[in-house]
Model the fold of this input.
Amino acid sequence: MTVHNMHIRSIDHIELTVKDLIVSSEFYKRLPGFKVVASYPNFIMFSCGNFKLGLTDHKGRLTSDSFKETNIGMDHVSFTVSKREDLDEAIEFFSSENIPHGEIKKLSNGTYVLAFRDPDNIQLELTYK
Done:
């Protein structure tokens, strides 16, 4: 069956599996712009700009202790920032909050990225193009 009229417009949300929902939710609450919009015993949803990010601990039924982007599944999540200077500000913020992060890199397509890690070692990026 071919769908001719359907048009996927954007990502509504991404949901991440985390080891400790409390630790992870406190981490994401510290990120600028992230607001809690739903909270249940094993799930929390944040809204930031035009997308939502959910966290779940799957009621403790995890099969691994930490995230590895080399496994099949997700590699990383990248968030867009408004201006290049936001990346410099983010480095100061990450350093003051002891959030592991890399350096700002300019990619061959002119995009600037700044990678950082959440408490479960999930790679996140801030991106400016």
User: Anything to note?
Assistant: The first strand starts at residue 13 and ends at 17. The mean pLDDT is 90. The CA atoms of residues 44 and 56 lie 7 Å apart.
